C-alpha cells in the first residue's frame, strides 16, 4: 500500500491524497504515539509483529495478550506489515502504539531494512512475531540489527497454523526464520509436530503454549431470544452456528452441503455464518443453487460474539487446517456442543462424544450425520458443560499470558 510512510506510527500518519488512507486515519486517530508509552529503565521493549489486526483468532489472541501483559515489566508496541485492520482501534484503550508499514507484493527485502531501522530507532529488546510473513520479515530485520551492532532484539515466534500454501519454498523460509529465532511457540501438539517435521525447527527452541480464552466473557446461560433478535434469525427451530472468516481454508462449502442434507431430515434447522471474506459471493451462490436462501443467514463480521453465541444449539467448524481454534474455545466456554473437523488442534479442544463430535475434513455426509446426532441428543446440554469444563481446565487466558511473559523474561534475562 503506497500511501504509508516509512514506518508511520501513532496517528497512522497517512497521506491525505488517498481516500482509503484518510478513512484509516479517522478510524485510528486515538491510537497513541510512541511518546504515550515511553519505557523506563526497568522495562523491556516488546514489539508484536503481525500482518494486520483484522477480525480473526490470531489477532484477538494478540490483543488479549497485550491486555494482560505486565506494563511494569514490559513496554509494548504493535507493528502491522500490511495495514492496521479492523481491530486496530482497540489499541487505543490499551494505550499501545501502532506502526504500519506498506508491504509490497512478493518478497519485499526493502521492508526488512525499514523494519530493522525502526527496531534500532525504537530500541526494541524483543520481537514477538505471529505467523509466517511477520516471522520472516521480523527475524530478518532483527538479524540485520544484530549484524549492525552485534546485539539486537531477541526473537520469539508463535506458530498459529499451517495455512494452505503448496509452494516448495515456504517450508524453507520457515526453517530460515526459525534458525534466526531464539524460541518458537506452537499453539497445539499438532503444530508442535508440524514445526519439527515440516519447518525443521530445532527441538531445543520449540515449546508449546496453548491458546486461551476468558471464561467469564464467554459463559453459558445467555438470552437466546435476544441473541436471535440480534442476528435477525427465526426464533423457533434448531440453529447451527459458525464463527469464522469466509476463506478457502475454513471450507464453508462443505458445511453448506452438510446443512442441505441435514435440512432434508430436520426441516426446522437454520444455519448462521458469522464472518466475512473472499469466498462470500461464491457461498451465497451455492446457498441459492441449493434452494437454502431462507434457511441460511450470512451475518457478516461482528464484534458481539459473546452476545450472539446463545442463539445457537450447536456450533460447527469445517476447517481444512487449524492451529488451536479460538472460536472453538469460545463456543465451548459458552456451553455449546460442537461439530468440527478432525484437523490441527481441534482434537485437543473437543473431546470426542463428550463435548462434541469430530469428523474428517471435506466429508459433508459425515458432517451432516454428526450435526443430526448432536441435535437429536436429549442430553445436548451435558456436552456443552463438558466443553466448558475442559476450557476451564486447559485453556486459561491468564495462564497463556503468564507463559508468554515468562518466556519474555527468560529470553531477556530479566
Could you explain the architecture of this structure?
- The structure is a single chain.
- Strands 1-4-3-2-5-6-7-8 form an 8-stranded mixed sheet, with helices on both faces. A 6-stranded parallel sheet has the order 11-10-9-12-13-14, sandwiched between helices.
- It starts with 7 loop residues before the first strand and ends with a helix.
- Helices cover 41% and strands 16% of the residues.
- The chain is α/β, with parallel strands linked by helices.
- It has helices at 19-27, 57-68, 91-94, 109-122, 132-149, 170-180, 189-197, 224-231, 252-265, 280-289, 305-308, 326-333, 346-349, 364-376, 380-394, 397-412; strands at residues 8-9, 44-50, 74-80, 98-100, 126-130, 154-159, 183-186, 206-208, 238-243, 269-274, 296-300, 314-317, 338-341, 356-359.
- It has 16 helices and 14 strands.
- The chain has 2 domains: 8-211 and 397-412, Rossmann fold, CATH 3.40.50; 224-394, 3-Layer(aba) Sandwich (Rossmann fold).
